[in-house]
Predict the structure.
Amino acid sequence: MSKKSDRAKELFKSGCNCSQSVLGVFCEELGLDFETAMKISSSFGGGMGRMREVCGTVSGMFMAAGLAFSTPDNKAEQYKIVQELAKRFKDKNGSIICRELLNGIESSSSPTPSERTETYYKKRPCVELVGDSVEILEQFIEEQQTIKNSL
């Protein structure tokens, strides 16, 4: 595990949602202040507003990738990056869809967040998924820097 991964897990355990936890550990080095990152990513927790769609950790990873690699004219390249990151997450976890990742766990799409209790953390894979997304993006960034340096 990396320091960023550990920090992201701490953010989640302190009350940040899954998306905020991932974007939060990359934001400042990518030119975004922490408070703005928390606001931008706040809607993506719980699979986008607790609708259990795309996992918030994956959305946070995509937002950070946008900050790291996007330019106004490289949509196709950016979409390729997003698809690669999604593939890596899916290969590791079986899905990028929140409700599938929570399979067998009682969850609702109520807009009210679940209370963060010891039971919550024991039942849900969210803390580990936060760590996975951070590690996947860290590895990807490192690979891109290695490629860039070899040119």
Summary: The chain has a mean pLDDT of 94. The CA atoms of residues 102 and 125 lie 7 Å apart. The two ends are 29 Å apart (CA to CA). The chain is about 65% helix and 0% strand.
